[in-house]
Amino acid sequence: MSTYDVCIVGAGVVGCAIARELGRRHRDSPLRIVVLEQHEKVGEETSGRNSGVLHSGIHEDPCSLKGQLAREGSALAVSYALQHGIPLLRTGMVIAISWEDVRRGLWREVSMLRRLWVNAWKTNIRVSFVTPSGLRAWEPNLRSCGGIIIPSVSVIDPLAFAQSLRTESEATDAQFAFNNRVIGIDEDADAYIVTTDRQRIRAACLINAAGLHADDIAAFALHNKKYTIHPLRGEYYELVTPEKKCLIGRLVYPALPPQATGKGIHFSPRPNGQLFVGPNELAIKDKRDYTSRKTPPSLFVEALQKFLPALDERDLRWAYSGIRPRVIAAGGHKSDFIVSVDREDPPLINLVGIESPGLSAALALARHVGDLPCIQKRFRPIDSRSLSHDAYDR
Predict the structure, then answer these.
(1) I need a labelling partner for 153 at 20 to 30 A (CA). Which of 3, 80, 267, 310 fits?
(2) Is the peptide bond before 271 cis (omega within 30 degrees of 0)?
(3) Tens digit of pLDDT for each residue in 220-274?
(4) What is the Cα–Cα distance from 133 to 140, expressed in whole angstroms?
(5) Phi, psi of 2 (to 5 degrees)
(6) Distance between CA atoms of residues 288 and 89, nearest Å
(7) Homologous superfamily assigned to 2-49+158-228+334-393
């Protein structure tokens, strides 16, 4: 049985970021870190099946972990991408109101824009209200009566991001064990015995970053069901008609009422020049259900034709879907990120409900975990915040 200081379950972007963070904090006295992953490579689930948007946090409560870590993490991710040559599209985000929205009652959308404006003011995110003519300067083919522009928002290649974080983790001697599905966890004095379908390991600290399966991993360790993930599928179509896929060049999101659980079906350009539309939201029971009951393209066209009248069903081709690990809070509202120290000694840290903006927040989430008192006490790392940004990010 192999022995490690830290076992991280899940090689999505968050698990890879945590492995990198802990490895870099202990260069002088390296930690023995292993990352267990049930798939054969990084980012096979939520991390690699999304829009790649580095969100500003403006859609979230400014005091929430989602809001705080998205703001910090998106800036870190942009800097990281530029330094490591990861594909990045510095597109900016448009949150638009259509003329159709005006005709059916503008107050809901105006309320949403007002809330976003207040969030931006509280968090010093640079935004601007724009008129139809102002929007045309950004997106000449966009049909809208106005909205908000957030210039700082970018789109990253999420798989390249996760793979780069893995490579940097391995440079600090972290090990990745792929095709290892966790099937049991037991506590043994001052450590955890983690059993996979291939091996058993012993670790002084267990960090659960298993994404869609974080509730199941937590239940193995806690021997009860403290968390429940309600999987939510989001589907994407690609805009493939050559003369139309160049009509929109930036992220264009609809203005939505405050009670909306997602950010809405949007135009989603990628660094490689592709243009997708999506995602929608479809509650599912099976965390592996990516394709059953595919939503017809007509519903995507209906959602976006008010912004781009030329859009037609024939322009769209099914692309892929992703599944979000949503946790439902009291009152039926979506939960904040859960980063819970469920045992202090030996440390057991469960990261649950890391849905959007989890990609944006990944590097900041890793710092947040590294700063937890139980981690500091157990491993006495250097303080990452005392390093210069140049030295830290190099």
Answers:
(1) 310
(2) no
(3) 999 999 999 999 999 999 999 999 999 999 999 987 755 566 788 999 999 999 9
(4) 9
(5) -80, 150
(6) 30
(7) FAD/NAD(P)-binding domain (3.50.50.60)
